[in-house]
């Protein structure tokens, strides 16, 4: 999507006076007015994604009547976690981690420099958690029973999945609270904006806690697959490994979002954002470099401790080495180098490699290393429809992100009237 | 459970103390029959199994599944390669060629003492009965984590249906409640299957090993594997030759996720405390007060 003219708006009008839209009363007329596409909707990206999404909707309707079996998915009795649960959710959660890292830096540590990136990170976390729940509804075989988890029709409170599902729900609520200032500024509601500021620290702290639980939780989902996942990918430390790797995953995503926004949302990016951008990216690179070094060391220690080096000299072992060296150590060094030489391009390249590394790691954990000893014909490979629907969900998430960024002050500065409410 | 039943009876027994004291023992006795303190179990003596597949047939009949053809011709084909249980076959008998000749092994859910499937279920749709049976309930959400967490890959999911269930052996729970033997045990012509409390069948297994030196390997599969299970297997050859994993260990599978689960309360309480402490120490975060001006604002803002 880079370089694409998505919705070109020449000037962003910033009303000086809040419009004071009240949610119940005049929200819908306002919403209808705002819903109109800004700019030309007939772009190549929109057409392509539109086709994919339309096709996926048909596939999903078909899935509701025909179940999850082929041709919808390639799931089998020995590969119960498909692309949707295994991949979309594990990767989505990792990439949403910026929604905890940036609030931590800005609201807890109080480093104001990163402030312009706060709302982007929070919005991404909000959308990802929401779409993860959507994907969960798609991929759970008895989705109509999902409310059971929340209403207590059998509280399996001692199950990891129980905690993961609750945390998704709570994350949506918390991230919405964290994002409320932008929403209130959009509808120009001073009361709502003021209230949002009063819970900012609480929501931040709660949100970070949830994120820690979630990152470790998705790792813990796999801990009982002992004996099924190849020892190089399986570890009882999976929750910790997933948690640490999510930190650089989340930041790398923000670096990429920044690189892309610079092109597609340039009219939205205000002075403050533009000025702090370079510094912030260097800061991000330093964090990533450090965390990736730590993750590399941790992986080796865990492998040594669990005696996994015995498996290194095999096909799976080479693959593991490629992952840990090519997609952790090398981008980690690139981050460090880029931060030192202040080279933006190096950092952006490192971010892409790091993200590919995360995709690889999650893919390997749930698919490639899962029941790796099965004959090839019985191994799982996602079906075409699984890929298409996954792509469609990503597209819809991009649409939602774009729609919101084009309307609410996410990247651009808050309107004047709202500034007095931020007390930090 | 018994105490709750008891309290209920006391509560509803407003009619008089006599009624209450009369009902109570009856109730608890009735409860006792299905809630023994010991797990139920099945001893599977693979040296006695002749591969007739009558257990498969009986299982299909009592569970309303497609009844398999167990003629000799059919069996020949079926035994060509080892099978796994499916959504319509809760038990399968496989043939293995070993150092001691052909051995037949009926395989099904082990009904683990501490089942991974139960521990992974977010809605307790899988339940370990006090009598040892692991059964499935329809409040299941279909997340399939039980399949990931079962060391024996036993829960099977009906993918190709709009309303899909988890299917597996339930150790004939309904028959157990009526005091009837599991269908497979009842029909077995050679008594390769023997049902009883886990303690008794384990004793019987050990007795057979001791009484027939050289006939069995000195190991009962399911006694200690993954913390023990209700299905207990005797074999003449090492168990990896007849389709069992050797690397399962004796640690119950729920233990593997317990580390995380035990950490959850600590993460949930210590993380916020830590964050708030850091924030307070740096005194740079959002200041907590400024209440005076704020309240004035909200007062006027409400108009
Ligand atoms: S064998 Fe699997 S399905 Fe059966 S009780 Fe054990 S963990 Fe559950
Ligand atoms: S698929 Fe059903 S029975 Fe299995 S863990 Fe999920 S909710 Fe429980």
| Sheet with most strands of chain B | 3 strands, mixed
**What small molecules are bound in this structure?**
iron/sulfur cluster
Order of helices and strands of chain B: HHEHHEEHEEHEEHHEHEHH
Q: Estimate percent helicity of chain A.
A: 55-70%
Quote the distance from N terminus to C terminus of chain A: 35 Å
- The CATH topology of chain A comes to Formate dehydrogenase/DMSO reductase fold
Number of helices of chain B: 11
- Name given to the CATH architecture of chain A: Up-down Bundle
Can you summarize the main beta sheet of chain A?
none
Helix- and strand-based class of chain A?
mainly alpha
Q: What characteristic shape of chain B results from the CA principal axes? A: globular
Q: What is the CATH class of the largest domain in chain B?
A: Alpha Beta
Beta content of chain A:
under 5%
Indicate the radius of gyration of chain B in whole angstroms.
27 Å
Helix content of chain B: 25-40%
The count of helical stretches of chain A stands at: 15
Largest interface: A-B, 72 and 66 residues
The count of strands of chain B amounts to: 9
Q: What are the low-pLDDT stretches of chain B, counting only 5+ consecutive residues below 50?
A: 1-34, 288-303
What is the CATH level 1 assignment of chain A?
Answer: Mainly Alpha
Total of domains of chain A: 1
């Amino acid at each position: 999507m880079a370089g694409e003219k998505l919705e070109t708006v020449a000037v962003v009008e910033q009303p000086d006076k809040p419009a004071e839209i009240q949610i119940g009363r005049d929200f819908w007329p306002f919403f209808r007015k705002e819903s109109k596409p800004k700019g030309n909707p007939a772009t190549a990206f929109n057409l392509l994604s539109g086709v994919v999404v339309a096709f996926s909707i048909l596939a999903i309707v078909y899935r509701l009547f025909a179940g999850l079996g082929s041709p919808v998915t390639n799931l089998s009795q020995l590969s119960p976690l498909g692309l949707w649960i295994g991949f979309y959710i594990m990767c989505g959660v990792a990439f949403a981690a910026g929604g905890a890292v940036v609030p931590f830096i800005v609201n807890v540590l109080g480093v104001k420099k990163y402030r312009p990136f706060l709302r982007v990170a929070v919005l991404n976390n909000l959308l990802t958690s929401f779409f993860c729940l959507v994907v969960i509804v798609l991929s759970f075989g008895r989705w109509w029973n999902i409310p059971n988890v929340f209403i207590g029709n059998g509280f399996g409170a001692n199950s990891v999945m129980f905690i993961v599902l609750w945390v998704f729900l709570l994350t949506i609520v918390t991230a919405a609270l964290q994002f409320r200032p932008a929403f209130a500024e959009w509808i120009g509601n001073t009361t709502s904006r003021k209230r949002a500021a009063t819970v900012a620290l609480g929501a931040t702290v709660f949100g970070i806690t949830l994120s820690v639980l979630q990152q470790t939780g998705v790792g813990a989902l796999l801990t009982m697959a002992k004996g099924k996942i190849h020892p190089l990918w399986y570890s009882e430390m999976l929750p910790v490994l997933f948690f640490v790797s999510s930190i650089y995953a989340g930041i790398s995503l923000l670096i990429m979002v920044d690189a892309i926004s610079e092109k597609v949302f340039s009219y939205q990016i205000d002075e403050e954002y533009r000025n702090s951008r370079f510094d912030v990216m260097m800061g991000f690179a330093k964090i990533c470099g450090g965390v990736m070094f730590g993750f590399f060391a941790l992986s080796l220690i865990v492998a040594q401790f669990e005696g996994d080096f015995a498996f290194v000299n095999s096909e799976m072992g080479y693959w593991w080495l490629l992952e840990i060296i090519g997609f952790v150590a090398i981008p980690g060094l690139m981050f460090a180098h880029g931060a030192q030489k202040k080279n933006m391009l190096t950092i952006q390249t490192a971010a892409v490699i790091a993200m590919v590394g995360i995709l690889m790691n999650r893919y390997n954990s749930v698919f490639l290393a899962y029941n790796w000893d099965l004959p090839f014909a019985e191994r799982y490979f996602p079906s075409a429809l699984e890929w298409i629907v996954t792509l469609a969900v990503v597209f819809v998430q991009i649409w939602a992100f774009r729609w919101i960024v084009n309307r609410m002050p996410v990247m651009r500065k808050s309107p004047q009237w709202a500034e007095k409410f931020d007390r930090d | 459970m018994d105490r709750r039943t008891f309290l209920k009876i006391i509560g509803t027994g407003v009619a008089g103390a006599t009624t209450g004291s009369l009902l109570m023992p009856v109730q608890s006795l009735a409860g006792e029959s299905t809630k023994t303190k010991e797990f139920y179990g099945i001893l599977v003596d693979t040296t006695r199994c002749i591969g007739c597949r009558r257990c498969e047939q009986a299982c299909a009949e009592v569970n309303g599944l497609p009844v398999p053809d167990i003629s000799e011709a059919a069996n020949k084909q079926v035994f060509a390669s080892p099978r796994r249980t499916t959504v319509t076959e809760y038990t399968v008998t496989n043939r293995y060629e070993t150092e001691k000749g052909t051995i037949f092994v009926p395989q099904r859910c082990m009904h683990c003492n501490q089942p991974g499937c139960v521990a992974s279920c977010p809605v307790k749709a899988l339940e370990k009965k006090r009598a040892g049976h692991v059964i499935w309930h329809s409040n299941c959400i279909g997340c399939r984590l039980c399949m990931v967490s079962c060391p024996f890959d036993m829960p099977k999911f009906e993918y190709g249906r709009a309303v899909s269930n988890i299917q597996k052996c339930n150790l004939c729970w309904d028959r157990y409640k009526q005091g009837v033997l599991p269908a497979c045990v009842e029909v077995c012509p050679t008594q390769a299957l023997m049902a009883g409390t886990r303690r008794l069948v384990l004793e019987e297994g050990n007795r057979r090993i001791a009484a027939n030196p050289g006939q069995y390997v000195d190991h009962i599969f399911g006694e200690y594997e993954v913390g023990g299970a209700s299905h207990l297997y005797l074999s003449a050859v090492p168990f990896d030759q007849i389709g069992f994993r050797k690397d399962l260990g004796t640690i119950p599978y729920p233990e593997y996720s317990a580390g995380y689960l035990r950490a959850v309360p600590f993460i949930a309480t210590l993380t916020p405390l830590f964050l708030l402490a850091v924030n307070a120490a740096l005194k740079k975060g959002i200041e907590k007060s400024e209440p005076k001006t704020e309240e004035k604002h909200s007062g006027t803002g409400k108009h």
